[in-house]
Structure formats: structure tokens, C-alpha cells
Amino acid sequence: MKELALHILDIMENSIRANASKISVSLVEDNRLNQFILTIQDNGKGMDKEVLARVRDPFFTGQNKKVGMGIPLLEQLASMCGGKLDIVSQPGKGTTIQATFQRNHIDLPPLGNLPETLMVLFASHPEVEIEYEHVRDNCRWSFNTKRMSQELGLQGPQDIFPVLQGIKEWIQYHENQIQEGV
User: Fold this and answer.
1) Is 22 helix (H, G, I), strand (E, B) or coil?
2) What is the DSSP string of 104-144?
3) Helix or strand or coil: residue 93?
4) What is the tens place of the pLDDT at every residue in 41-50?
């Protein structure tokens, strides 16, 4: 995958298939420590020890497809970039995936169009609460789709679609501010 947003999309879709009602995504960029940390946590059905032991195998999938490349590709990318992938999961409790990377590693792909990724998931699964946080050195911003929907008075998909472009632009504005260190 050519950008981190696609890895995030893949893992979040796994969370949705695991019946998560809440997914938290955290990006922490620390230039001083030369670290980029991606954490995705859900409250889905979780994995037992047997599935957890096999989830890194590209020829294993818990879904109706022949291969499951998302987690193995993310793990390979983290390893190539001087980091690692950790997965913690418990049946009935959910799953946490954390990928760490060397921030300035030449193989670390760009973040990509994360606002578009988040909006696609929000629009297609408005019932799932998405919590997002991005920290870069001393700058931080976050949002929560459930709170945002309540504050905007959005009742369902019919209310979401007319305001999606504005929400995407709002997210892009804040992401640009983080990148500029504002």
C-alpha cells in the first residue's frame, strides 16, 4: 500500500467486520524521538489465542476470502521502517493494533488522504463511533464522530451526506495545521 491511510482503512474495516461499535485511531509523531506511532483500537469481538497466533500469516483470514494481507503488510512496513507491530486482543473485549516506525525512515510512506479515508468510513458506517487523535510534537487535535453528529444534529445518513464535504475540509484544515506545527 502506497500510503498509511490505506493501512488505516484496512484495519478499520476489519474492526467493523468484527462488529465494533467504537474505533479509536491515534497518530503520534515525535520528531525528537524520531518515532511515528499508529494505534487502532476497537471494541469488536476480539480474537482468541489461536486466531491471534495466525493473524500475521498472509494465507490466513477470518473472512470469506483466500488471503488476509492487511496485517502482514503493515507488519512488514513497520519492520522495514525500523519499528514493529504489536497486537493485543481478547474475545469479547476488542483488539488494539499498534505499529511503530522510525519517523524519518526513507521507506515510511506518506500519510495520504486521511480525511477522505475517515469520511468514507463515517459515511458508510454512521452507526460506528470513530474517535481520532493526531499528535505531532507539541500540537494535538482530535474529534469524535458521535459527538460531532450530536453537535451538528445529524440523525442518520440522510443528514450526513449533505455535510460530508464540509466535514472533510474541516479535518483537512486541522491535519494541515498539525503538519505545519500550529
Assistant:
1) strand
2) T-TTPPP---HHHHHHHHHHH-TTSEEEEEEEETTEEEEEE
3) coil
4) 999 999 999 8
From residue 34, how far is each of 28, 38, 114 by CA, in Å?
Answer: 11, 14, 21
Chain segment 46-90, per-residue pLDDT in tens: 999 988 888 888 776 665 554 457 899 999 999 999 999 999 999
Please state the φ and ψ torsions of residue 40, each to the nearest 5 degrees.
-125, 125
Instruction: Please state whether the predicted TM-score (pTM) of the whole model is above 0.70.
Output: yes
Q: Looking up cell 478499520, which residue turns up? A: 12
Give me the mean pLDDT over the 17-44 stretch.
Answer: 97
Element (H, E) at 168: helix 164-180
31: amino acid identity, one letter: N
Burial of 173 per CB tally in 10 Å (0-12, 13-18, 19+): exposed
Q: Which three cell numbers stand for residue 173?
A: 484544515
Rounded distance between C-alpha atoms, residue 71 and residue 53, angstroms: 12
How far are the Cα atoms of 59, 104, 108, 110, 160 from residue 4, in angstroms, in the given order?
Answer: 22, 14, 9, 6, 25
Residue 70: per-residue pLDDT: 87
The C-alpha cell 458508510 sits at 124
